[in-house]
């Protein structure tokens, strides 16, 4: 049995898509997305999206790995294997800078990747939009706005009328195969 997944409206230009996304947000739709072969400046604002938290997640990862690096190096050089090298102190933090820096960058990168996978809902190998042949144009030169059926404001007739008022080149209902 095929269930409806989303209504997709196709547009000719990025400015038309930007305008459509703004109108969808103003109309109260919240479970919608814009599809384009390249980023469109102002799309986040038009869709009413909040600022990304991936930067904060990266900072947490960087500080976590920085702390781990200092603790591990301090423990090994001052507690577990204390060696007097050139008359330096056992906890010679100046020697820890390169490793600490490298691990801080690694931590930020790993946390950023994991954060993006989580918040961007990446890692799924299937999306019902892949069932549409027309949707493939968004990889090359097409622009589409999709409003999901699970949006609280979604109503077949009203949402179709709303999308038609935006004057798209085409509208299609994408089915979700089970």
Structure description:
- By secondary structure, the protein is α+β, with helices and mostly antiparallel strands.
- It folds into two domains: 2-45 and 124-177, Alpha-Beta Plaits (2-Layer Sandwich); 54-119, no CATH class.
- Helix content is 44%, strand content 16%.
- The protein has five helices and four strands, in the order βαβαααβαβ.
- It has helices at 14-26, 43-47, 54-80, 97-119, 156-165, and strands at residues 2-11, 32-35, 143-148, 170-177.
- The protein has a four-stranded antiparallel beta sheet.
Quick synopsis:
The protein is α+β, with helices and mostly antiparallel strands and 178 residues long. It has five helices and four strands.
